[in-house]
Write a structure and sequence with these properties.
Conserved Hypothetical Protein Ylqf, Chain: A, domain 2; eight-stranded mixed sheet; GTP binding; binds guanosine-5'-triphosphate; 8 strands; single chain; Rossmann fold
Amino acid sequence: MAKAEREIESKIKLIDIVIELVDARAPYSSKNRTFDRIIKNKPRLIVMTKKDLADNQVTELWIDAFKKQGYEAMTVNLKSFNEYKKIINKCKLVLREKMEKERSRGLKPRAIRAMVIGVPNVGKSTFINQLAKRKAAVTGNRPGVTKAQQIIRVDKDFELFDTPGVLAPKYTDEQIAKNVALIGSIKLDILPRDDLFIYAISYLNKYYPSALKERYDLSFDEQEDWVLPVFEQIAKVRHLKKVRGETDYERVMDLFFKDLFDGAFGSVSWERPNV
Ligand SMILES: Nc1nc2c(ncn2[C@@H]2O[C@H](COP(=O)(O)OP(=O)(O)OP(=O)(O)O)[C@@H](O)[C@H]2O)c(=O)[nH]1
């Protein structure tokens, strides 16, 4: 087992609940399934971040899908004031029965201890910093917690490790690599740019045709030979200069990806659950 995995595994033993952050725009692709092996049966809350950038209807489908798999799931916009509190409240709710049982057995009331995990760029630091800003992190000098391990005590009922568990997504699957690139979590150059461009345009045409129409006055039939006409149309609408009489395809792709990351197509989810 790799060092990062071993570290996460040893911390998991010390906590009551894992908060697994995934990106709402691609909740499957922005998960690393190694976490499942490490976490095993520990209570887990799946939090889909970046709710504001995703398609609400699709996010609702994902919440249902995760619940069907037996997970607690919710979505948040961590950029919205105080929304992180919903995560804490949900953790408390998920563990209410367990904590009540402990109390009824005569155990001393104690805070729930949680840990955040996720692949890069899903909002782990944003969430942890929001908690840390309000409360000083205290070095854990309790049993089982190493000196270097910092714990943020949010209130008397909730504590959080200040360092998240991070694992990179697995890019072995090309579809996962595409989705993770399209949500901006990895550099685009992991894949041939034109493949990614064609995939993204085709996906938008299928699921968000009005976004393409609005931005580029573009609509096309997948059955027809559409790729070159799409390049031409984007170049025309955006008044791109021709280079030696030819459309500058690289510039078209630059423009498209800039538009994409600037949110020009509105709220877009890049994957849907298999329902
Ligand atoms: N729009 C939006 N942006 C968010 C949200 N949550 C996080 N972000 C942004 O996403 C980017 C990545 O957030 P981080 O908190 O750095 O993510 P991380 O998981 O700690 O990333 P690593 O440090 O790479 O592991 C930042 O630009 C955040 O401002 C959200 O709910 N909505």
